[in-house]
Amino acid sequence: MILTTTNSIEGYKIVDYLGIVTGVAMHDGVIALGFSMSKYTKKVQDSVDTTKEKAFQQLQENAKKLKANAVVGIKVEIELTTSNYAMVSVTGTAVKVAI
């Protein structure tokens, strides 16, 4: 599956727009007391990376349900909430490209 933040894919022709797809993932327990700032920053980054990967997996699964072979115009939103959660939302347009 081709994933891109751009609205087109160089070298490919989009033959059908299949709809908007999303992937949302949340991870709790990002913040822990007793960590130094560098360990805290690493823990937050690891949590965001893991959560982002889950959101992208969900995005791809939803695109496959529409028989898409690519997703264009991807937007990623990352939110670290005050209640120790990392939430990642990924949205794009599922398309069929000629291969």
UniProtKB/TrEMBL annotation:
SUPFAM superfamilies with a match to the protein in the record: YbjQ-like
Pfam families noted in UniProt: YbjQ_1
Superkingdom, taxonomy of origin: Bacteria
Family: Belongs to the UPF0145 family.
UniProt protein name: Heavy metal-binding domain-containing protein
Organism: Winogradskyella aurantia
